[in-house]
Amino acid sequence: MNDPAARDSGGSPQQQVSAWRRLAGTSVLLDGFHALKHALRFGAEVPLAVAADREAALALADELAPDVRQTLAALLTEVPESTYASLVPRPHPTAVAALAVRPSREANLRALARTPRSAPVVVLDEPRNLGNAGAVIRLAAGFGATGVVTTGTLDPWHPTVVRGGAGLHFATAVERLDVEELPPGPLFALDPEGEDIRGLKLPDDALLAFGSERSGLSAAVRARADHLVALPMRPQVSSYNLATSVAMTLYHWSATGGAAA
Question: How far apart, in whole angstroms, are the C-alpha atoms of residue 114 and residue 117?
Answer without folding.
Answer: 7
